[in-house]
Amino acid sequence: MFDDPQDSGIQPPQPASSSRGSQEGLAILDTDIGYDPDDLVALVIAAHTVPNLTVVTADETRGRRARLARHVLDLLDRTDVPIIAGLDLGGEHRFLADHGPDAPRHPDTTGEELIDRIDQFNDHIARLFATATCPIRWVGMGPMSNLNAFITHAPDMADRLTVTQMGGWIDHYRDSHNFHTDPTSAGPTLRALPTPRLVLSEHTNSPFIHITRDWALLHRLSAPTAPTAPAWAHLLAAHFGMWFTRRPGSWMHDPLTLSAALDLPFVTFHCEPIRIGRDACLHRDPNGRPIEVSCAVDYDGFLDWMHEAVCP
């Protein structure tokens, strides 16, 4: 269901279609699409609402996330959106189509091959930055490996980015998948960015945005005869169906993060001194570095926007 037979590899960025416009700034979605459905929901919303869009896949697994993203965007008539396959962290168990103990083993990679892939990735991102004349918004919806690789390669480029990243707990600590999948990237990246904004997990793990089987929009998407249910909608509904065989629901972490990156009024931020631990855990500390962290969410307003953005 999720594999496209074409080999996507890393696709070089192309200019946005003039019919979509390119004057509103470039948005880069860094997404580990293909596991929790909230990434797919965020991609659908971005395709519907963001004219100048590029997708980078996080926690890649043999190019499958890139192939899925390409397939979804093509179904949404966004062939203008380039896909850049990001760094492969070997996350087979974090790809829904092959979830579980029978997931295929990731092939061994030599150090030289890994360096080669990182160099290729950095070259593609550098070309993207070279052609962008507008502000660049980086929407972090997965581990921070891609962003860390690029700003380590070109640290001066960090100043051109407005980064809104999903992840992190402060007051009610639990595991933060996006940081702890690759803490050696999350910590240094948060320290290197001049003004990162974090949509904290304690706000995205809210019951107000926990989507279950009885979600009205999901029934609308999956209705086989509904005129508003094209192929992409059936794919989204099927993805939720696969997820619900494993988990009772999905938190809309990434659509909420996307709304914040687009400067919509649903997430409120304030600046707070934060100490970033070696394990990428976050701690309030008067001697920490200033970070914009979420402090409140208008969940009702967000849900109204999300429903309309998924099915405009």
Can you characterise this structure?
The protein has 312 residues and is an alpha/beta fold. The chain is 37% helix and 17% strand. It is built from eleven helices and eleven strands. It has helices spanning 38-49, 64-75, 111-131, 145-153, 177-180, 183-192, 201-204, 216-222, 231-244, 253-261, 299-310, and strands at 26-31, 53-57, 83-85, 136-140, 161-166, 197-199, 210-211, 250-251, 267-276, 282-284, 289-297. The strands form two sheets. The protein has a nine-stranded mixed beta sheet, sandwiched between helices. The longest helix has 21 residues, at 111-131. The chain is globular and about 50 Å long. The chain starts with 25 loop residues before the first strand and ends with a helix. Mean pLDDT is 85; it is low at 1-23 and 99-104.
